[in-house]
Amino acid sequence: MADRTQRSTVGSSQREQQRMNQPYVNRFEPDQLWSSRAAAFRGELKPYVGYMAQSGFPGVMMLMLILATVGYAALVRDLPAHFPVTLFGVALVIGFTCWSPLRTWLQPADTVFLLPRELEMHQYLRRSFRYTGIPTLIGVWFSLLAYWPMYEHGEGTANAAVLLLALAALKAGNIAGAWQERRTAEPGARRFLRFLRWVLTGVTLAALFRLEPWKAILFGLLAAALMAVIYRLPRKHALPWETLIREEIRTRRRYYRFLALFIDVPTQAPRIARRSYAAWIGRAIKFAQRETYVYLYTMTLLRTELGGMLIRLTLLGMLVLYWLGDAAWLDGWGSTIVFVLVAGIIGLQLGSLRHSHKYAVWGHLYPLPAQRRIDSLATVDRMAYIVCTLLMWLPGGIALAVHGNPLQALAAPAAALLYGMLRRPSVVRRKALKDDEED
Amino acid sequence: MNQDTKHADRTGHGPALEVTDLIGGYSPRRPVLHNLTFDVRPGEIVGLIGLNGAGKSTAIKHILGLMQPHAGEVKVNGAKLDADPQRYRGSIAYVPESPVLFDELTVDEHLRLTGMAYGVEASAFDGRLEQLLDEFHMRPKRGAFAEHLSKGMKQKVMIMNALMADPPLFIIDEPFLGLDPLGIRSLLDRLVEVKKAGAAVLMSSHILSTVETYCDRYIVLHHGRIAAQGKLRDVLQAAGMTSGTLDEAFFRLVSETAGGGGMSDGR
Fold this sequence. Notes:
The complex is a heterodimer. Chain A is mostly helical.
């Protein structure tokens, strides 16, 4: 901005000085705006992070990391003969390589106030690219470090320096690709491009971990050239304001959803998924006045991110418990331990359903008894808890029973059923009532 | 479940809404509403008009029971809120000034939820749903979420929900904002219909020509007081006029320099 101060008279330079001292008056300072927004977000989260730190969550994470390390070390020491070393490496490294988030701090109001400055936004965005690019690159290198002990057992011939450089290049390519996808106007094209990028990156990683380096690098370059051509095809925005604003909202929501596990946080509008395959559940609820809130909470559970999380947890639990049950780990009691753990997480997540519709104006206007909402909440919660935990148990339980461990097969679901039927509803009711009183 | 109100009846006798000496506002030390007394009878549409900040929305919140009166009382269909909350609530359908929708429900599902909440008969529900979708040209959007509806469409969903509940009293706050011309016409046609069927409607709006055409009586609110109420000639009289439009009378009543502002009960 120095070129602007080339005024001769003393008066005008004073005015200029005054103007420089006032932020954002007649002056667009992308760097300053970016920094103040980043600081505002940090300040916004600060009070909640303390609660998270006190909750014992970091300790649990630490413990799980240590356990995973010990398990991994044992796995590497006695690697089974046909272990898919390359596939494991791809799975380990692809996340940080492809996932290229972008914190822009853009807000809906920016389409009014910053839009006229679109041409000057490069500097602003450069900060964003640096802010998210560097940590994910470090993540890539860390996952490579984690993979290294196993890589040495594989057929790969590349040395560490080549891999570090190749992965950095791959990461850079993915950041550039993700940006082109954000600019793409049509959601369908955007999804297709992202899918293609993940697939080609995955294949390139597999080549790097398995083939001679020059072959892998040649393949990577060809893939990059192909993507560069394809990225030119769709209609694109110069700066995808709406996509970036949506992404920002999603990211904030994710932060708050995480923090909501520990402490009450300001509610963000939920992200909605249609999940047509589950639509029959809503239709199955009887059309009757007393079922009003059962219907509402069921739809909330099915359509919000909470439902997505429960579905993923249940599927993951099914898979892990099947493996453990099939291996009859710790005489079959190992799967019981893991079941209790995952069922606990499901219960914890499900507990956040009570924060929905707490403040909905319709709750005051519907001609329904006030207690009805909380009763229905407990009903939906109980149903969801039992369905998720029993489904999760089913494959592993069958495996255990087949291997002749009927007691181990039945103990966990029986406990979940008892807890879900008898204890959990009153806990949910009590918490919901307490919330109401506090407000 | 005997605590459930089955679809509140239109009694036919007595006012659907009766507000008596209502004093209200957010802080007891600074009331916004001063001694409001008015009623809305079955089979009439009453227009609530006033400048921004005159107290229209505050008055509506008191009627809905979202705010507690400092003094005075509100009866809906003969019931007071604390004495018979189910009857009171079951007698009102409310269309808010800015649409309030559930993010996770589609248009169809909003109507289903309202139908359940107000105890609409399952047999009557489907017919009403299809009719409303056609009337408000929302059939192509029936599976859409709130996020994908325009402001006007959201407003239509609110209106359709109120009509689905089909109670004795409709409270409609600024319904025309964002509504397209077809939507406005459908709404007005339906209001005339429910009025003929014996429902009462309290509607606040700034579109005075529409209010003049469709309302049977008017309440002019100014600085939280009733500046005039009654039929057109009563409002004209309160404004010191013998002939003219509601618009002219309103303008005289609310301009401080004009001779308006006198209390009048022209019923």
